[in-house]
Predict the structure.
Amino acid sequence: MLTLSGVDKRYPTGDRALTNIDLTLPKGQVMALIGPSGAGKSTLIRCVNRLVEPTQGSIRLEDTELTKLSGHRLRHTRRSMGMIFQEYALVDRLTVMENVLSGQLGYVGFWRSFLRRYPQEAVVEAFRLLERVGLTHALDKRADALSGGQRQRVGIARALLQSPKLLLVDEPTASLDPKTSRQIMRLIRELCAERELGAIINIHDVALAQQFADRIVGLRTGEIVFDGPPSELTNEILTTIYGEEDWDTTPEPADGADADTETEADETHRRQPRAAREQRPLASVAGGGAR
Amino acid sequence: MPVSTTPQGLPIWRRRTTRTQWLQYLAWLAGVSLFLLCWKMISDNTMWVFVEDAGRQGADLISRMTPPEWGYASQLWKPMWDTINIATLGTALGIMMAFPVAFLAARNTTPHPLIRSAALVIIVSSRSINSLIWAMLLVTILGPGVLAGIIAIALRSIGFVGKLLYEAIEEIHPTPVEAISATGASHMQVMSYGVLPQVMPAFAGISVYRWDINIRESTVLGLVGAGGIGLQLNASINTLAWDQVSVIFIMIFATVLVSEWVSAKVRHAII
Amino acid sequence: MSEQIDALPARQQAAQRGQWRRLPLIDSQRMRWGLAIGAVVYLVLALASVEVDWQRVAEGAGRALNFLGAFMRPDFVSRYDDIVTGLLESLTMTLTSTVLGVLLAIPVGLGAARNISPLPMYFICRAIIAVSRTFQEVIIAILFVVMFGFGPFAGMITLAFATIGFMAKLLAEDVEDLDWRQVEAVRATGASWWQTMNHAIQPQVMPRLIGLSMYRLDINFRESSVIGIVGAGGIGATLNTSLSRYEYDTSAAILLIIIAIVLLCEYSSSHVRRWTQ
């Protein structure tokens, strides 16, 4: 359904974010994109909906060549790609319903959206989605009054209201606690199955990726170094993706909470969580530069 | 924080290195001499006899101002109404013009860098020129009256509101904007959903704040003929009717205090 | 309260049927209409009380064009001497008044901070601030010109007085928002009152104080360009004369100079602020 061929991205600063990416995503497949910070995961999914302009190559969604689109046609195509963000990216001062309905913006005209006169079907669908993610009671709450997990659910509902063919998911769990992370991943997984959506999920947490994805793609310095089912992801492969590390002693690299229980004798135990924590701000800096 | 060692081998800590210390002395010296130079120029242009006389003059002034001629207050309601209108309508007009200018001037919403510079020029010239100067100018163009005052206040407000608003726009979170663009929204929709809700509280706060300042400014516009209570003030001063002047002062004081209170309340309610 | 609990499911039900409207900004409908009608009535009354002499406006339109044209060819030369003296006066007034004003504002500001000053002191300082902030600079200038005679001295006193109100209010707010733990930490070492000021309060308020002083310098320059109208020295008098003589090319020159200086001020103050932080 989605085909990337020979995609390159070079930033004006000269940094090469992506090199010659070839990737095909069949309908209904959930693909996890893993790799260290700065490997180009965010850039890759932003190239797909053209929040970042690819320098070279072709990206096709079904029969549409995305890289050549502009203006009205680009917006039209963006509707069919729902995006879910790391920091939820809700508009804080709008209510939950307004945030969900903003998924319809590509379908309605400016004045209709400005006056919040959405078509009845859109509202019905928005309500159904809120029901699906379990947030109908929060309909009129402001987005900033919600907890992290609830916000992410609103973000998911917004993306789905676009009636997308494809979900682009950027670090959905990076700001959430482990339990909520799993709930959110499961929800995304289920929704993809219900609606036969393809999804590209950027994720730091290898364990989560292995558990919830059909397929894993490993990215390192802008190049694909692994592409296969979760079962084939071995320690050697993780080493090629992330670099040298004792993988067996670090069960949950994205969660720094267990670092407190470690004894000082176990050096490797402590190293990984710290590295994961340090990577996060770096990732947001790189993301900021990308915009 | 440099630590050096004495000949005896004891470490001593100083807050600054010798070089920065000297540079700082030098900067202070330059600053103080500049101040003294300026002071000298002012004192050369001053008739010190008058200044020595100031205490007596002040006492004289106060004795003439008291007691205030309260009867005069009844003639001040209309000018006060005009003053408030000048401020309110002027602010309204000003923020209407400032709103698009701010969006054109903010780095993240401007359509083109050239348009941005043009918007910045508008903001800077409006900010640099005091509303009283705008009023002088407009009185020669439009003739004396409230209209000149309203436009003067509006022109001055563009720069103030425009500057603070465009800074607020530049400080918004970029991710919601990105998310709204990702839904396939048009440029205008991105503005109204991604940017506007984020700057609305700032915008309302800035506008009310400016209204409060404008009440104060509009009290003097009459001095150059642009309507409001300043006209009465000018007349009373010219006829040396200081007991009327004190009534006007009390009126102004009360109005400004009330407007400041309202503005603070509204801003609190918004934030 | 119970109304709200009932209202929420109603909105949910409506949304389920596809009917949804934005939450109104103000809850009570009566209040909404009242405010809207009030605003319209005010607007009508206010606009009705604006008297416009359209004939005079039409006459003035030509002058407006002249004035705009003057910006294309500003005349710096014919009143060169007046401009230079006025400008020098304005600049010297600005600098001295800011320095004096800030120095005087520090004790007033500390006195007006509720958390470090005794109550009588607090009221006196707050009163000074209120008076200084309420009256527009030009009004204060009128009084000081009467007292001190025409010239830049009256202007300087005016601006210094206005500076006190502005700076002291903001300084007082800053001191009231202090991080009190730092003050206690310094006090706990056995520091005297002065030492506490120097080590706990000064470092916390200093950067903002410098920033605000630079900002006030900028405001004072802009104000110094108008208080000349009432005889308090500075470029305002020159500008006023040129405007009333319809010498728009000279006025344009003066305005351009003012804009340039304000820009310069702003540019350098952002540098100073960066340097001090």
Notes: Chain A has a mean pLDDT of 80. The radius of gyration of chain A is 19 Å. Residues 2-80+164-245 of chain A form a domain with the Rossmann fold fold (CATH 3.40.50.300).
